[in-house]
Amino acid sequence: PDTVRLQGVGFGYAETTRVLRDVNLTLPAGSFHFLTGPSGAGKSTLLKLLTLAERPQSGTVEVFGEDAGSAPRSAIPHFRRRMGLIFQDFRLLDHLTAYDNVGLPLRLAGVKDEVWGPDAEEMLTWVGLGQKMDVHPPALSGGEKQRLAIARAVVTRPDLILADEPTGSVDARMGERLLKLFQALNKLGSTVLIASHDEALAERSGARVLRLEGGRLTGGEA
Ligand code: ADP
Ligand code: ADP
């Protein structure tokens, strides 16, 4: 089964029409793709269609084998529960410690305290924040916030991981380390899509590379 299937998708904003034109994209379950393209090409917009934050103006968006593009707003949580989202602006909860930020999605999913605690610790250690568990986000560096956002997004082992420029705030070495983390999660079964303008990282990753330019997507057919 395919995790994502877009057919003939067109989308534009009121002030920026025709951001995406006739986009066809298949992400088979368990696949790993990079989405590249210059700034303003529509990478974030394409992610928003997958998270159901925006709806296609033409064509169809299927996620987890279901019609997501025309699902009612009330169905959005049903889709998002199976996704791990890494936003460009992190969206961390500043009043919670790093530990509680990572534990929150597990608690919301009803995981028992004695289970989510060790899971949160393990994930924080994995992203190199084992010594910063009790720190609040405002006291973290940009790269640390980025790693915390990734830990929180993936701790529930989501079926689909969508990341918008997840290596934008870290140096090259940390970028490679985060790439390895995404690859490990992919091996555990998550379908992964990483939007990045870093063509070199995309090429080195060995993942399939999709390119957006002039509203058109290339490399998207399975
Ligand atoms: P990328 O992620 O590749 O940098 P975006 O998807 O953010 O590209 O943006 C694609 C185009 O849509 C750009 O021209 C951008 O200015 C425009 N755009 C993005 N969001 C909005 C919005 N909310 N309203 C109007 N135009 C937007
Ligand atoms: P809105 O608040 O208008 O619904 P979103 O919350 O969907 O918009 O997105 C706002 C910003 O979050 C975008 O500029 C984009 O960078 C980022 N974003 C949106 N969807 C995703 C995603 N699936 N993964 C990572 N980042 C995303």
Automatic annotation (TrEMBL):
Domain ABC transporter: 4-222
Keywords for the protein's UniProt record, in alphabetical order: ATP-binding, Cell cycle, Cell division, Nucleotide-binding
Name used for this protein in its record: Cell division ATP-binding protein FtsE
Gene Ontology biological process terms in this record: cell division
Recorded superkingdom: Bacteria
Gene3D superfamilies from the UniProt entry: P-loop containing nucleotide triphosphate hydrolases
PROSITE patterns with a match to the protein in the record: ABC_TRANSPORTER_1 (PS00211), ABC_TRANSPORTER_2 (PS50893)
SUPFAM superfamilies: P-loop containing nucleoside triphosphate hydrolases
Any Pfam family the entry gives: ABC_tran
GO molecular function, one term: ATP binding
Alphabetical list of InterPro entries matching this protein: AAA+_ATPase (IPR003593), ABC_transporter-like_ATP-bd (IPR003439), ABC_transporter-like_CS (IPR017871), ABC_transpr_LolD-like (IPR015854), P-loop_NTPase (IPR027417)
